Amino acid sequence: MKRVFSGVQPTGNIHIGNYLGALKQFVELQEDHECIYCIVDEHAITVPQDPKELREHILDVAALYMAIGVDPKKSIIFVQSQVSQHAELGWVLCCNCYTGELSRMTQFKAKSGGNESVGTGLLTYPVLMAADILLYDTDVVPVGNDQKQHIELTRDIAIRVNNKYGKTFVVPEGRFMKEGARIMALDDPEAKMSKSAENIHSRISLLDEDSKIKKSIMRATTDSDGEFRFDPVQKPGVSNLLNIYSAFSGVSVDEILAGQNWRGYGDLKKELVAVTQEALAPIKKNYEEIRHSEELIRVLNDGAERATAIAQPVMQRVRDKFGLGLGR
Ligand code: AQP
User: Fold this and answer.
1) Is 111 a catalytic residue?
2) How far is the CA of 144 from the centre of ligand 1 (A)?
3) Which of 2, 74, 148, 195 is catalytic?
4) Tens of pLDDT, residues 117-161
5) Chain segment 169-209, per-residue pLDDT in tens
6) 54 vs 43, 224, 274, CA distance in Å?
7) Is the CB of 21 under 6 A from ligand 1?
């Protein structure tokens, strides 16, 4: 069985971009893969976090994993900082990665805004992500399109280390959705939907009330030509709505367009509100049952043990290849 690894940052409420781009794949893959899903809290602190809120968000994300259908009997669910080998391997990989490679990363440029007084963690974030993946001899990484560059870097580092020290790492592949790989902000369809954007109507969180879902979609930015056409360059707003519609309904954009009899964008939006509310209702119900249960903590502690059992021998292999410590 191929091994899958992916993670989500506990930086706020998970939105439909995270879900349609990455998390939906988590559930599909667990049927015929060995899956490991992480809550990457060490990534979250690359930007300032309130410690109390961070702890809550860790449990929120874990509960959401289970609410969407990640089954702890089939998959490992755990918190990154509970497995110390992530940080240890991160350091080793930092020593095998160039600052030029890191400063060229699009996400670093966007988040640092060219400012030199940003935390070093923001620059080295993709190396820690490479460590997360390589630590589990991962074959497949289900992520959104925005992570493509980081997956490429992970592969480059793995190949570089393998060439220099002999076969050390499995070289992983990214896995991206056809629809949903990049969901854009509802208020600005040129920017990706994001947890940390200021305007709450830029995104739909998985736990949003029906009234909030309606408000955010009905006020989404479109255009003025009134044509129903999928064209992300000329018509990014309408195309984004069609993309979300398709990803939630499982009907292709072409079929949606062929079957519609909308009189205006308002009709498309109303249908999308209904489709989105219906898709999120069972997730919200499951979440309420899981979030404050003792089972959640048990799942995470058990997950950390199972993850450590895989990570430890891989880390020892790395120590042996690099000549770290005294050996066995
Ligand atoms: N807009 C998106 N469309 C499709 N996929 C997306 N992902 C994120 N945004 C979109 C995918 O979701 C997974 C988890 O992302 P993350 O929490 O690790 O961090 P992120 O990519 O930085 O997500 P956000 O929402 O934009 O968070 P903040 O605002 O905290 O930076 C990843 O697989 C990602 O590709």
Assistant:
1) yes
2) 7
3) 195
4) 888 999 999 999 999 999 999 999 999 999 999 999 999 999 999
5) 999 999 998 777 799 999 999 999 998 889 999 999 999 99
6) 11, 41, 32
7) yes
